[in-house]
Write a structure and sequence with these properties.
By secondary structure, the protein is an alpha/beta fold. The chain is built from 21 helices and twelve strands. It is 45% helix and 9% strand. An eight-stranded parallel beta sheet has the order 1-10-9-8-7-6-3-2. A two-stranded antiparallel ribbon has the order 4-5. β7, α9 and β8 form a beta-alpha-beta unit. The chain is globular and about 85 Å long.
């Protein structure tokens, strides 16, 4: 990592749909980058109206009756964020003459390794004039990036008068267009795997292409879980003349939200592979990218555009943060879950915040509630799940599906519906009623159906509640998706205190039994592996058993890698290394006891 001009060495990833919907307004003026979800244009429109009123700015509603309203709503909100963040940042720089000013707060929150912070302290000691300080700030300070996220799988088809619209009006395509048409110079985080049609659609927008100096107004950030995925997706985009500006590596299980498990490949070995192959990957992508630009008649930059490798998922201490940066040569570390307890950064309603503060390991679990059929990190007793259980108890399982963003199943209907919807669950339960199942099998199958939760509503409601906005459409239930790391953070803190924790200037974790992030992920994978075997239909086929053996082999190789890494590691404390080795041996024994027969 190059420390020459470091601002912050962490970023705030997208969390849910609403928890980071206005985070850039709160943190970008301080140079902190964050990501908002573009899924819910209804929530986005409500937030734009709310903030326009708050800041006494003109607001003109964008009706859902007009053509392309989804993209237009997203563009309008992003332009609003861009304008207000820039104004706040300019005000921050001009505040230097005020006591306890925002300018100093910006500087103080920077990591101590930052040369910018060091230079500022020199300026203060030399008693430079306010004008000199402001001019210096204009040259060296910048706001954080207002990045956006699209889950590529959530690309629902849309209709007008029962007539299906062209593919460019699908949800993800419209969100992409909304971002591309905005004034932002930032990144779009593409998560949940490759969507060839969506990726191809990006070719239509000039902002995704570089200028002669390699600058790109709209940067592509790929959230990935392994090197192979980076290679495949990176080449796919490069072949279209589209450059990946950041590979954002996320733990398969030790993360918030949806958990895209690997076949037993652990985060450490994945980061090691990136460390060893990153330059070869960059050279390969540059060659394909340049050739494609030439064929398209586009500008081929004189130098390779900037590219970053970052990581996130379960990081909780400054020691882990620094180790990832230094040993794996990363550019930034994502801190998500802990920021749910920072009201200055995220929108979490008081009731949910209290649940998070009290949450222990048993309250944080890998659930099956997502309509996408992907495992989902969940918090027990969240108000949306309580609401869901109430409907089940009344004999009315399923959601009324007021927003339909996860309507992707065509199992029973020509027009896709959501597996968490009342419509889908009624059909599915009726099918179970006629299937002649044993009571035990019926109960298991029934619970699997009704467990699905209306996440596209529940994950956005908190932003409405905290701002006293109308929830008539959504209802009051809140879904929340913290990673297991939340068990070790137990109190609400200020933005500065959380950043001081990240940079090792103070410690807010009161418990002394928190496992290392790599150990925690391994523990989750062993539990996931054991559950996978228990849930399999007996007798297991030879191909399934072969998959289990490969999964186990990858876990064993991961354990061996960690043992070798931490036996002689000088970037962490000796006592840290000893504890990691001890925990690894315990988990290795657990893995050996899993019966694959």
């Amino acid at each position: 990592m190059n420390n020459a001009a470091v601002l912050h060495t962490f970023h705030i990833p997208v969390m849910g749909i609403g928890f980071t919907i206005d985070t850039p307004l709160r943190v970008a003026p301080y140079g902190i980058s964050s990501t908002i979800s573009l899924l819910d244009d209804m929530l986005i429109e409500k937030m734009r109206e709310f903030y326009c009123m708050k800041f006494d700015m003109p607001f003109k509603a964008i009706s859902d009756k007009i053509e392309d309203y989804r993209a237009k709503r997203i563009t309008a909100y992003l332009n609003f964020l861009d304008k207000v963040v820039k104004e706040k940042f300019e005000g921050l720089k001009q505040s230097i003459h005020e006591k306890g000013n925002e300018f100093e707060k910006y500087i103080e929150m920077l990591p101590d390794i930052s040369t910018i912070k060091q230079r500022f302290r020199e300026f203060v000691q030399k008693k430079r004039s306010e004008l000199e300080m402001i001019n210096w700030g204009n040259l060296h300070l910048m706001p954080g990036s207002i990045d956006v996220n699209i889950m590529t799988k959530l690309d629902k088809e849309n209709y007008v008068n029962n007539e299906k619209l062209p593919v460019e009006f699908n949800d993800a395509h419209a969100a992409m267009r909304g971002f591309a048409n905005s004034n932002l110079e930032s990144g779009i985080v593409l998560s949940a795997g490759i969507n060839p049609r969506l990726y191809s659609y990006m070719e239509n927008f000039d902002d995704f292409y570089p200028d002669a100096d390699g600058n790109i107004r709209k940067k592509i950030i790929l959230k990935i879980s392994d090197y192979k995925s980076a290679l495949i997706q990176g080449k796919f985009l490069a072949n279209k003349g589209l450059w990946v500006s950041e590979f954002r590596i996320e733990s398969g299980l030790n993360c918030g939200g949806h958990a895209f498990a690997t076949d037993g490949y652990l985060m450490g070995p994945i980061l090691e592979e990136f460390k060893e192959k990153r330059e070869a990957l960059f050279l390969l992508l540059e060659e394909v990218f340049s050739k494609s630009l030439q064929q398209k008649g586009k500008i081929v930059p004189k130098t390779r555009p900037a590219i970053k490798v970052t990581a996130q998922g379960g990081v909780g201490t400054s020691e882990e943060h620094n180790f990832l940066l230094e040993y794996y040569n990363l550019d930034s570390i994502g801190w998500g879950t802990p920021f749910l307890l920072v009201p200055e950064a995220t929108s979490v309603d008081p009731h949910t915040q209290e649940l998070l503060c009290k949450a222990t390991e048993k309250d944080l679990y890998l659930s099956h509630v997502s309509p996408l059929g992907v495992r989902f990190n969940n918090l027990r007793s969240n108000s949306k799940d309580i609401e869901k259980q109430g409907f089940i108890d009344q004999g009315k399982p399923g959601s009324t599906c007021p927003k339909r963003y996860a309507s992707l199943s065509k199992e029973y209907t020509e027009k896709a519906i959501c597996t968490a919807s009342r419509q889908y669950q009624r059909i599915k339960i009726k099918e179970l009623d006629n299937a002649g199942l044993s009571p035990e099998s019926y109960t298991k199958a029934y619970n699997k159906v009704v467990d699905k939760s209306c996440l596209c509503v529940g994950l956005g409601t908190s932003a409405l509640l905290i701002n006293d906005l109308n929830t008539k459409v959504e209802g009051p239930g809140v879904s929340i998706c913290p990673g297991p790391n939340m068990a070790y953070f137990s109190k609400v803190v200020s933005l500065k205190v959380m950043i001081d924790h990240i940079y090792g200037r103070q410690n807010i974790i009161e418990r002394t039994d928190r496992p290392n992030m790599f150990v925690k992920e391994l523990e989750m994978y062993i539990s996931y592996f054991s559950e996978m075997i228990e849930d399999a239909a007996a007798p297991a086929s030879e191909s399934i058993k072969k998959g289990w053996l490969n999964f186990q082999k990858n876990l064993k190789e991961g354990i061996a890698y960690y043992k070798s890494l931490f036996l002689n590691q000088d970037k962490t404390k000796p006592e840290t290394n000893d504890k990691i080795i001890s925990d690894l041996e315990i988990l290795e024994n657990q893995l050996e006891k899993i019966n694959l027969a």
